[in-house]
Amino acid sequence: MSELTQGLTATQTRERVTRIDPGPRDFSALNEVVRKGSRIGNETLDGDDHLNEVIPKPWGMEYRIYVDDFIDVWNLKINEGQSTSMHVHPRKLTYLLCLAGQGVTDTLTDQHPVGAGTILRIGGGAFHSTRSLGPGPLWLVEIEAPRNKFDLIRLRDNYSREHTAYETEHTEAPELPAKPVSYLPQARLRERSPDGEFTFSIRAGADIFYRRQQSDLFHVPLGLTGVVTGEIDILAPAQADDRRPALDQYYLSLALA
Fold it and tell me: Which residues constitute the domain of residue 207?
C-alpha cells in the first residue's frame, strides 16, 4: 500500500473521490469550439476494430481493457513530462483511476493531484488534461459511460492535434488479445498490460468478498446501474476501502501482477 493511501478509513476513501463537473467556462469553451467547426463522432459498436488494438499517442499509449455495449475501460500510459490534450467528452461520464505514478489533472479553472489510488469523476462537458510528473510513467484506467470513443473535442494540445478527431493509427497486439467473455453479452476483456505490471479480470462479488487479495487495486461494477445513474460505485481496496461488494454482481478487477 502506498504512502498516499495508508491509514484511510472506508468513509475517507469514499469522500476522496474527486468530482469534476462542468461550469460556465466549460460551456463557453465548448460552444466556441463547436462554432469553429469541431465535431464529435459516433463509434460503430460492431465495427471500428482498430479500437481493440493498442493506440499509440504522442504522450504514450492507450489500449482497451474491457468493453461491452454500455461501458468502455481503457489503460493509459502517460510518459514522464508528457500530457494529454485539454479535451472534453460532451456526451459521456468519465472516471480516471490511478494505478501508479504521480501526475496532475488540470481543468479550465483548477488542478487536482493524481497519485496511486486516486479516483476522479469527470462529468460530461468538463474540459480536462492530465500530465505525468514522474519519476517514470503515469498509469491510469479510464472508465467511459456510455461507450463512444469518438465523443471527443480537443481544445488545446502540445502536439498540434487541436480540433482533430480520435486517432485511427494503431498497433496490432496479437500477444494481448481482447477476448470475448462468454457469460457477459457483447463483452471483451484484455487480461494484462503490455509490460505485465497489471492484470485485469472479471470476478463475482462473492469471490471478491471471500477471497480478498493484497494485489487488488480497484473493483469496477459492470452492472447497468452506474451507467444509468451516472454514479459508478468503484471499490478501492488499495485505499483501505472495506465496503462489501454486491454478491450478485460482476466486477472488473484491476490488480498488480
Answer: 10-256
